């Protein structure tokens, strides 16, 4: 467990620098908001909880209590007063996830890459190559990186991949130009509110379930109730979303090559840290593939063994 914690901490320490390098390489520093995040408390023991947060180790993030003017700015914007808050510096968020994906794809194609709109259904290691069977036919490659989230295990017939769908829910809406404050975590409600340009997003809840199971509409209804109770500016109907975060039993990602298939590279199981760890994962896997740089054994994709009945 300690080795796993240390390995994950190493990735997390380099997560923000990796994002900064990526957005700089893309000539899109606007994709990264470096203003940090604020945690807020509403209850009678708000000051005590904020003090506890200030005294807790938060890794590379640094903390400072909100002053009276900063608290007043939130209270002027909210319908429910908050009594204490802590600002976390050294953290960031993506300003537009869709723009990040579109920009990366455009740069990849411009660099000579090929984008195939298809669904992979099976990956088969061969003597000198790897064959990927897709809904648009078979492809072969020298190396294949499996970064398919919660569905990664279905592509790997021999290795055990005990991924579970850690489902998240959010609602998103237009704020009508009425929200300019930093991203906020309403700790008493376990609700996170993030600004993406003209939109706000509220998220909470975790469900451990199957990827194909139906979502629970009560989760969205509760989120929408929190948004209204907080008095956040709402200038449009709510858009509802749910998605499955890929989570392994030890809560660590699977990174690196497989012993039985060294041309296949794992990059899945990042749970709720997928966006955070995307660029640093690309950095460490590139070094691993191109230069043989070692990866922490805690991330080994072989650590759960082979599927029952496999003879590999």
Automatic annotation (TrEMBL):
Q: Gene3D superfamilies per the record? A: D-Amino Acid Oxidase, subunit A, domain 2 (3.30.9.10), FAD/NAD(P)-binding domain (3.50.50.60)
Q: Which residues form the FAD dependent oxidoreductase domain?
A: 8-286
Instruction: Give the domain of life.
Output: Bacteria
- List the Gene Ontology MF annotations in alphabetical order: oxidoreductase activity
Q: Which UniProt keywords apply?
A: Oxidoreductase
Which Pfam family, just one, is annotated for this protein? DAO
CC annotations in GO: cytoplasm
Instruction: Return the InterPro entries for the record.
Output: FAD-dep_OxRdtase (IPR006076), FAD/NAD-bd_sf (IPR036188)
- Write down the PANTHER family for this protein, in alphabetical order: GLYCINE OXIDASE, SARCOSINE DEHYDROGENASE-RELATED
Spell out the protein name for this chain.
Answer: D-amino acid dehydrogenase, small subunit
Q: Which organism is it from?
A: Acetobacter malorum
């Amino acid at each position: 467990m300690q080795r796993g914690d240390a390995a994950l901490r190493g990735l997390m320490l380099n997560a923000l620098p990796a994002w900064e390098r990526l957005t700089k390489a893309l000539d899109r520093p606007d994709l990264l908001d470096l203003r940090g995040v604020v945690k807020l408390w509403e209850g009678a023991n708000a000051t005590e909880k904020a003090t506890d947060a200030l005294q807790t180790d938060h890794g590379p993030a640094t903390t400072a209590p909100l002053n009276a003017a900063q608290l007043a700015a939130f209270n002027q914007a909210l319908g429910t007063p908050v009594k204490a808050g802590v600002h976390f510096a050294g953290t960031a968020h993506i300003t537009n996830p869709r723009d990040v994906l579109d920009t990366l794809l455009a740069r990849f194609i411009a660099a000579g890459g090929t984008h195939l709109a298809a669904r992979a259904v099976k990956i088969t290691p061969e003597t000198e190559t790897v064959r990927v069977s897709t809904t648009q036919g078979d492809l072969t490659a020298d190396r294949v990186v499996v970064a398919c989230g919660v569905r990664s295990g279905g592509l790997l017939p021999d290795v055990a991949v005990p991924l579970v769908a850690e489902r998240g829910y959010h609602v998103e809406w237009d704020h009508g130009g009425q929200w300019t404050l930093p991203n906020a975590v309403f700790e008493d409600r376990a609700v996170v509110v993030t600004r993406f340009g003209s939109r706000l997003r509220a998220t909470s809840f975790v469900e451990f379930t199957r990827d194909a199971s139906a979502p629970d509409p009560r989760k969205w209804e509760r989120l929408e109730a929190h948004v209204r109770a907080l008095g956040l500016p709402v200038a449009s109907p709510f858009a509802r979303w749910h998605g499955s975060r890929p989570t392994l039993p030890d809560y660590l990602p699977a990174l690196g090559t497989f012993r039985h298939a060294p041309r296949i590279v794992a990059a899945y199981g990042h749970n709720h840290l997928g966006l955070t760890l995307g660029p640093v994962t690309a950095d460490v896997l590139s070094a691993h593939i191109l230069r043989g740089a070692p990866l922490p054994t805690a991330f080994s994709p072989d650590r759960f063994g082979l599927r029952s009945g496999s003879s590999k």
